C-alpha cells in the first residue's frame, strides 16, 4: 500500500466542505496513451488504489506500463469503539488521496485499446468514485 514516508504533521483536518471545484493539475494524460479520469469529488484510500492497481495489472497479464497519478498523503483518524467524547483526536487509521472531477487517476501504455479499456473498467469498479476512460487519440 502507498503511505507517506514522513510528514510535517501526523494528523490533519478533513476539509469536508471546502474541497470544491474541478482539478487544475493532473487533469491531462502525461505519460501513457490511455487513462482513467474521475468525474466526481471523493476520497480514495491507499487500500482502494492498491486493489484497483492489482485488478488492472492482472487483467493486462503484467504487460505494458502503468502509472498511478495520485498519492494518498492525507491522514484520516478514527477513535476506538466505545470511547467517551473528549480526550483528543483519534489515531491515524488510513491515508487517502483527495480527488476532484477531472483528475487522472491511472495511466497506461504498451497495450491495445480494447485491453486497456477493460483493464481500466475493472480498476474503476474498485474505486469509490465515478470514472471514465480517456485516450490520447480523443484529445488530438
Description:
This protein has helices at residues 46-59, 113-125, 136-139; strands spanning 34-38, 42-45, 65-68, 74-78, 91-99, 104-109, 131-135. The protein is of the alpha+beta class and 140 residues long. It has one domain: Aldehyde Oxidoreductase, domain 3 (Alpha-Beta Complex), CATH 3.90.1170. A 4-stranded antiparallel sheet has the order 3-6-1-7. Strands 2-5-4 form a 3-stranded antiparallel sheet. α1 runs antiparallel to α2 (113-125). The chain is elongated. The N and C termini lie far apart (35 Å).
- What is the CATH topology classification name? Aldehyde Oxidoreductase, domain 3
DSSP summary, beta strand count: 7
Which CATH architecture is right?
Alpha-Beta Complex
Question: How do the strands line up in the largest sheet?
Answer: 3-6-1-7
Largest sheet composition: 4 strands, antiparallel
Overall morphology: elongated
Rg over CA atoms, rounded to whole Å, is: 17 Å
The CATH H-level superfamily is Ribosomal protein L16/L10
The string of secondary-structure elements, in order, is EEHEEEEHEH
Give the mean pLDDT: 92
Distance between the termini: 35 Å
Unreliable stretches (pLDDT < 50, length at least 5) are none
Counting structural domains, the number is 1
Beta-strand portion reads 25-35%
Structural class: alpha+beta
Helix content: 10-25%
Amino acid at each position: 500500500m502507498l503511505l507517506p514516508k514522513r510528514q510535517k504533521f501526523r494528523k490533519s483536518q478533513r476539509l469536508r466542505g471546502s474541497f470544491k471545484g474541478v482539478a487544475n493539475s493532473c487533469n491531462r494524460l502525461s505519460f501513457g496513451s490511455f487513462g482513467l479520469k474521475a468525474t466526481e469529488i471523493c476520497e480514495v484510500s491507499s487500500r482502494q488504489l492498491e486493489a484497483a492497481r492489482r485488478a488492472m495489472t492482472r487483467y493486462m497479464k503484467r504487460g505494458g506500463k502503468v502509472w498511478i497519478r495520485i498519492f494518498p498523503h492525507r491522514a484520516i483518524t478514527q477513535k476506538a469503539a466505545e470511547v467517551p467524547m473528549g480526550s483528543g483526536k483519534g489515531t491515524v487509521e488510513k491515508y487517502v488521496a483527495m480527488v476532484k472531477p477531472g483528475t487522472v487517476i491511472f495511466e497506461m501504455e504498451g497495450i491495445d485499446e480494447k485491453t486497456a479499456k477493460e483493464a481500466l473498467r475493472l480498476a474503476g469498479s474498485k474505486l469509490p468514485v465515478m470514472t471514465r476512460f480517456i485516450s490520447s487519440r480523443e484529445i488530438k
